[in-house]
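Sharing in case it's useful to others searching the archive later.

Someone asked me privately for the predicted structure of PAC2 family protein, so I'm posting the question and my answer publicly. Question first, with the sequence:
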Amino acid sequence: MSDLIDYKQTLSNLSTQRVPYLVMNLIDPLVDAGDISQAIDATIADLDAVNIATFNSDLLYDYRAQRPIVSYLDGKLNELAYPQMRLNLVTDIAGKNFLYLCGQEPDFRWQTLTQDILDIVKKYGVEQVITYASMPATVPHTRPADMLIRTTKPAQDAKYVQGRAEHFSALADFFEYFAGKSDISVTNLRVRVPFYLARGLHPFVQGALAAVKMTATLGGPKLPLGDLEQLEDQQKEEIASIQVEGAEFEELLQKLELEYDATSGEAGFVKTDEALPEIPSSEEIGKAAEEFLATQSAHLRRAAGAGRDRGPSKSKSGSSSEQGVDQTGKSWWAWRRWGRNNSQGNTQSEGSPDDRG
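And my answer, the predicted structure tokens:
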């Protein structure tokens, strides 16, 4: 173990627990197109979590590049928030645990950190690492959000984008390269964000929702969808108002739609719906229903009677409608601030000890 990581001594018994999934979501706002990673982080923040380890911020961050934030109150500074990496044990909505490596992407010691993460994978018996990324693209928001899925262990029949490209590496990419050499399974979900939504006040909620759904589709943690679904509907309404006001935007959108539809069959860009089981046709459903009614009419009548006592309706995510956001909803600024505070910083109030180690 390096001098960068500090495991909580009171949780030493967790070292014997096997956790199959590690979600790695380190945020750099400058390259987080559409605030995808920040939106996912805010979603995970809704879940129960226990901090397992922290990392030494003084050795990892350039405080002039990622400046700590101080808060002023009544004549003096009362809080200090500085960037920090954390390793948490989180419980998803299905009751299963996963490891969550979160915080601000560090500036220094990437090779040492990569070895530390490899040690975490070995320590907890991790079978699959999931990472997220996003990139601006000439795609319209009116089509399903898609993504490039990259893995260190592709299936023989896997589809992928043909060709060669180079780009600046994130720490997740850096780790993935060395994890592949160590025969560790890493899957990266890289969401394509409409370029006109890549930098703005609003996260590209549709893309974050698609990444969360794909995580579950691939067998990973099941994350809450309620807030993202509510915000997706709100964002669609706001963008629709822009279309009404601007004829130039409408013309641009039509061109993007035509281009997207003409190339939607290209290998490599995957939509969440493409990974779902095939849905039977209405004729098949009708035939199955007729057969069922003919043979099970008595059971159907009893079930209909019992159905009168059922609870609240379900949302499109399958969760109870009573478990969504509050009546006022989250403002977009509250969403961004919530994600930043939970993913990028460690806050200390006046007089609290420095526990960075």
